[in-house]
Design brief:
By secondary structure, the protein is mostly helical. It is built from 8 helices and no strands.
Length: 140
């Protein structure tokens, strides 16, 4: 995870107990956030274009984001254990990701953070980190 790969960097942490992963409630909390994110993508018309970029069945997408976020947020590297380095940008290259797609992804994740009642300071910190990664994913 090099400095030239912002999509693979984790938010700064002070100790294991203070990691975003722990503060979200560990694996179950991360899973709940991911599930709400994909539920919103399925339910809310403003996220229709984002939803269209995904397969009809979201189970694999849910699992992969959950596994990735566990490690990215300071928990176990579940994604890396299964697939190796995330190579986020390379894995997303086949999909048209521009400003509109980035903004829909961010709005959906911000809504999920709010609906999961993530503590305001943590939600702000995560929003900033998510934005950096989402913006780096743009390829159009």
């Amino acid at each position: 995870m090099g400095a030239d790969d912002p999509g693979a960097q984790t938010p700064a942490t002070v100790s294991a107990a203070a990691t975003p992963y722990a503060r979200l409630g560990g694996e179950a909390g991360v899973r709940a956030l991911v599930d709400r994110f994909y539920d919103l993508m399925d339910l809310e018309p403003p996220y229709a274009a984002l939803r269209a970029l995904h397969p009809a069945a979201l189970d694999g997408s849910r699992d992969k984001l959950h596994w990735f976020l566990c490690g990215w947020l300071g928990g176990p590297d579940l994604y890396i254990e299964r697939f190796g380095h995330p190579r986020l940008r390379a894995r997303h290259m086949p999909y048209r990701i521009g400003i509109a797609e980035r903004d829909q992804w961010m709005a959906c994740m911000m809504q999920a953070l709010q609906e999961r009642e993530v503590e305001a300071g943590l939600a702000q910190r995560l929003t900033e980190a998510f934005f950096g990664t989402a913006d780096w994913m743009r390829n159009r």
